[in-house]
Amino acid sequence: MEPSVAEASRVPAGDCSCPRLDPDEWHEVENDWSDITFVSSGTSALLGVPVGFAGAKSGLQGTAAKLKLTVPEDAMLLLGAGKFRRKIMLEVEGAQRGQKGVDWPGGIAYTRLVPAPWGDMQKVVGETKDAANARYNKNPDELYVWYLTCRLCSTERQFETLIVAHYKKHP
Q1: Measured CA distances, 19 to 16, 37, 72, 119, 129 (Å)
Q2: Which of 97, 114, 130, 139 is the most buried (most CB within 10 A)?
Q3: What is the pLDDT along the chain (171 residues), one digit of tens a residue?
């Protein structure tokens, strides 16, 4: 029997430096986003699969540096929906309200920490949308994905992924 995501997140994965989230803090949990900030951009996608992901991440880190913002250790790197173009957002700290180039999504985020191999992504995102809708009686305003594993640790950590259902205002 394979370990659950909670068990797998505690298993060492070689030399990998991918983020590890505590399931108690992230799985089926509501988070206040009133003080969360991001820099954002877009990345191309081919039928929903992001292309140039590493370059987009590097560009966002450059934007954060240019704006004199700090990228926290294990910063959220969220990918939005889209077949041909997808929004990508990098969490930053130190922004001032109204600062140009900084997104303040506000509201709340309902998150689920799940195994999500590529072939299951649409299914697990749909399950998160359904769970959020059942919890709040309203569909989320946005759905985001945070891939927590790389090619070195994906199999061992079961393609651990955080799915985020964002509500701009608390339902």
Answers
A1: 9, 18, 11, 22, 23
A2: 114
A3: 344 554 444 445 456 889 999 999 999 999 999 999 999 998 877 765 677 777 788 999 999 999 999 999 999 999 998 888 889 999 999 999 999 999 999 999 999 999 998 789 899 999 999 999 999 999 999 999 999 998 889 899 999 999 999 999 988
CB atoms within 10 A of CB 86: 22
For residue 12, what are the contacts with CB-CB under 8 A and spacing of at least 6?
none
> Which among 66, 89, 65 has a CA at the least distance from the CA of 76?
89
| CA-based end-to-end distance of the chain | 38
Nearest-angstrom CA–CA distance, 6 and 132: 20
The single-letter DSSP state of residue 35 is T
Q: Kindly report the CA angle at 92 between 104 and 156, in degrees rounded to 5?
A: 115
Q: Contact at 8 Å (CB) between 101 and 157? A: no
* 3-class DSSP assignment, residue 7: helix
Whether the CB-CB separation of 79 and 57 falls below 8 Å is answered with: no
- Name the maximum alpha-carbon separation found in the chain: 50
